[in-house]
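New to this. Please check this protein:
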Amino acid sequence: MRLLWVSAGLAALGLGVLGIFLPLLPTVPFLLLAAFCFARSSESLHSWLVHHPVLGPPIRDWERSGAISLKGKQMATLSMLAVFGISVGLGLRPTILAVQAAALCASGLFIWTRPSA
């Protein structure tokens, strides 16, 4: 089971790191998932991730107080607007746009109601 948790953690970490460079791929949720998986499998990997100078601060903020940085909130909102704009530009059906708008609004509401780090 430990190997499964480590593998899932490494996959989540890889996606999180990719999210740093790809604007529509979320970074922090994957880092939080990686920290969760590492906490169940490898104390050394968990400690390394949480104390990493670049990857660690958003994890520590979330673990300490459920906080999201203001910059993170702004970037997430811009990404959501970009995704919705692309969908509109592609001419997706109104039903799909409505479902997407509802999901993005719910996500945005969740993000903006968290404390700012």
The longest helix spans residues 2-21. The radius of gyration is 16 Å. The chain has a mean pLDDT of 93.
